[in-house]
Structures are given as structure tokens and as C-alpha cells.
Amino acid sequence: SEMRGNTLRKILVALIIVAPIISYSGCKKQAKCGCGKDVLFTLTNNSAYVYYNETGTNISFQILGDSYSTYYLCNPGEMFPKLADSKSGDILLVSGHTYWDCNYVSQSSNSSYRSYYKVYNVQVTDLTLDLYGKK
Predict the structure, then answer these.
(1) Model-level pTM?
(2) Closest by alpha carbon to 130, among 97, 79, 60, 82?
(3) What does the pLDDT average to over 12-26?
(4) SS3 (DSSP) at 67
(5) Which of 10, 56, 74, 80 is the most buried (most CB within 10 A)?
(6) β-sheet bridge partners, residue 99
(7) Which residues, listed in sequence order, are joined to residue 69 by a DSSP beta bridge?
(8) From CA 115, how far away is CA 103, in angstroms rounded?
(9) Residue 109 vs residues 30, 34, 104: alpha-carbon distances, Å
């Protein structure tokens, strides 16, 4: 009976180690928020209204046809020189990797009501004037 008790203990220890792996594999993990974490999707030349302040420290955009989502640049300083020929509110073509915004994630998880308004961070790889959309 001593031998059986030891085997049972080993099986229980093994189950304790293996069980979490089995039980969590079916459920999708929460994407990490913030620049450079888990990429949600990639934008490729999406037409967007780009808004920015005079110093270029805060650049955001809204994709045409989606007024419910706001995208904040992870790298405004790097992209600000590309805005030299435009003014705030112009339509530009935006490309880059999109992540959840951490403030949005913490606020939406605290509220029982999931907001239609989503907030993202974007590591922008390209920002160009929309030559076809230019008036």
C-alpha cells in the first residue's frame, strides 16, 4: 500500500503540472497592450484623417469609414517630418502595425459596457499624402 500511495502522489503532482496547460489551451489569451507587444492587425495604405499638434508630439488618425476607432502613433517624432506638406485633418495613407492601447484596455475591462469606440496604438511604417483623395 506504501508503493501505491507513492504512485498516486506522483500522478497527482503530474496532473497539477499538466492540468493548467490543458485547460488554458482552448481559450484565447488576452492580447498584450502597448506599442511593440501583440500585433492585432497591419494597416497597408489605409486612407485616414490624420490629426496632430504643432510640435508633432501627438499624432492620431481615424480611418475613413470607421469613426468609432482612434489610432495613436507609437512613433510620432519619427513620422512628423512626413507631415510637412499636409495640415491637421488631411487625408493621408497610413501603413503600420496595430496594437491595443493600454488605457483603453484597462478602462474597457473595468466597465460592464463594451464601448463601440476602440483605441489603438500604431507603429507607423509609412505615412504619405493620398494623391487621389487630395482636393
Answers:
(1) 0.73
(2) 82
(3) 57
(4) coil
(5) 74
(6) 121
(7) 118
(8) 13
(9) 11, 15, 8
